[in-house]
User: Fold this.
Amino acid sequence: MPAPILLFVYNRPEHTMRGIQSLQRNALAKQSDLYIYSDAPRGEADRTSVEEVRRLVAQVEGFKSVTVVERAENWGLARNIIDGVTTMTERFGRVIVLEDDLVLAPHFLQFMNDALDTYQDEERVGHIQACDFTRDPSLPPTFLIQWTGSWGWATWQRAWRHFRPDGRQLLEELKRRGLTRRFDFNGTYGFTRMLRRQVEGKNNSWAIRWNASLMLDDMLSLNVGRSLVGNEGFDGSGTNCGGGQLYGSDLWMEPLPVEKITPIRENQEARRAFQRYYHRTNNFWAKALRRIRRTLKGDFGA
Assistant:
């Protein structure tokens, strides 16, 4: 039986519609239960668009079943995802998780379900990620890495039990065990800083806490070198919309077979590919050039 799909939506009807349409084009959609979590508006400025999204999702068809959960108050993305994933993994044992700005390749659901089945009993594999933004041709079709992405992912109840919501505790343990540089891909990206800002209340990222939780428990993610997910949320419409074309993906439109990787250990070449990517896109001159280009375009959101 296909894993249930959790889709988290807020106030972007056009993004939501494109994402749902791409999901409907997956052959397994008709066999899958879809749970849509619709957050309530933060304020009056968002009310109209939230209501439009709710009218849209109330009419969704093309799945085995569609259940819409309308929050009566604004929960925010982190609380929504933590609650939804916790509740549904306890109920079903596994979930596929999507947000409203993702567009999916037609074989996304097949890949995710195959991967969930293949690695079900591999305790060190805690996460499946179907988006690749590095566009590095050296990456194999699938690989294991100690890093988690949040754009089109899946997990099991056995793995989600490792999630620790206390960012301060996670940060202190990363420091105590001397893992911050590894967490940051040898200092090429500020994941530790992101976690620190979560602790300080400057962001409310569930994903950085999930990433750190699995890192500390020495768990791996099955990632793809052929992207089955594209993120359209870098147009200034989302809560976390920075990044622009840094995280663009070329959708892989063919089936992506899942062959079990043995032994279960991190692919060091893949880790170096990520490190090269973050070094190339996150060094001082790259960031300065992006800032200049944004200024010239009058674009201050990415």
Notes: The longest helix spans residues 77-92. Residues 39 and 71 are 5 Å apart (CA to CA). The beta strands are 5-9, 33-38, 65-70, 94-99, 102-104, 125-129, 142-145, 153-156, 220-224, 229-231. The first strand starts at residue 5 and ends at 9.
